[in-house]
Amino acid sequence: MATLSKEILPPPLDATGVQPPLFDGTTRLYTSYACPFAQRVWITRNYKGLQEEIKLVPLNLQNRPAWYQDVYPPTKVPSLEHNWKITGGSLDLIKYVDSNFEGPSLFPDDREKKKLGEELFSYTHTFVRTVYCSFEGDPAKETGPVFDYLENALHKFDDGPFFLGQFSLVDIAYVTFVERFQIFLSEVFKIDITAGRPKLAVWIEELNKIDAYTQTKTDPKKLVECYKNRFLVST
Questions:
Q1: In angstroms, what CA-CA distances link 137 with 78, 88, 223?
Q2: CA-CA distances (angstroms) from residue 211 to 1, 6, 13, 95?
Q3: Other C-beta atoms within 10 Å of 112: how many?
Q4: Given this model, what pLDDT does residue 5 score?
């Protein structure tokens, strides 16, 4: 993937923000710069070189515009305006963007890799839920098995450092959450998620070489503050 030029990001729209024209032929990604679900689609867009084809419409989720409920009634992000309809769901959308737009393919044709990819997509829910719940329990004990699952999955293919060997949608599905969990678990609980997990350490290192991802990374200080408030963690 070629080095990306730094994108000038539009400011988030709050309750006073003007609604962009709806269904005017422009493809829009309604997003939040702080949301790990929306970040998945943002990375996919970037990696496929679709900055001109898919315009970002960032929202302030703490003070979101009332008009967004008319655009996408669940009022969640991400959602995508394309071909005269609005669709949501981050895993569905990364697959949709990969299949319906030009750019490098992000899912392999190999049957064994596709099988593992679908298994890993399914496991994202368990992974995310387990780690979030651990913040109010015993993170060292409760997160170990799910990070071990990722470590073991990274041993399946040896033709690259990523889950399916080469960079794919599966890596995108996980990295936005691993990014946040690594920061928070280290800062608050002094847990190193890569300790004893060399494949996971290399995976994170290699992902941080991909501009399409690094340009979307969250602010660590803001993340820690947000998660402390959200999960009522005392330090």
A1: 29, 31, 19
A2: 8, 9, 25, 20
A3: 11
A4: 76
Quick one: which of 197, 212, 206 has its CA closest to 45? Answer: 212
Is omega for the bond preceding 11 within 30 degrees of 0, making it cis? no
Residue 5 is encoded by which pair of tokens? 């030029």
Query: Residue 51's pLDDT is what?
Result: 96
Residue 124 CB coordination number (10 Å) = 16
For residue 54, the cross-strand partners are 27
Closest CA to 176 of 7, 24, 43, 23: 43
Q: What is the DSSP letter of 138?
A: -
Helices 169-189 and 36-47, packing angle to 10 deg: 140
Tens digit of each residue's pLDDT (9 = 90 or more) over 171-206: 999 999 999 999 999 999 999 999 999 999 999 999
Residues 6+ apart with CB under 8 A from 105: 98
pLDDT at residue 223, as a whole number: 96
Mean confidence (pLDDT) of the chain:
96
Report the relative pairing of strands 27-31 and 79-82 from DSSP bridges. antiparallel
What are the tens digits of pLDDT across the range 127-162?
999 999 999 999 999 999 999 999 999 999 999 999
Contacts of 225 (CB under 8 A, 6+ apart): none
Burial code (b: 16+ CB inside 10 Å, e: under 16) for 211-227 equals bbbeebbbeeeebbeeb
* Cβ atoms < 10 Å from Cβ of 109: 7
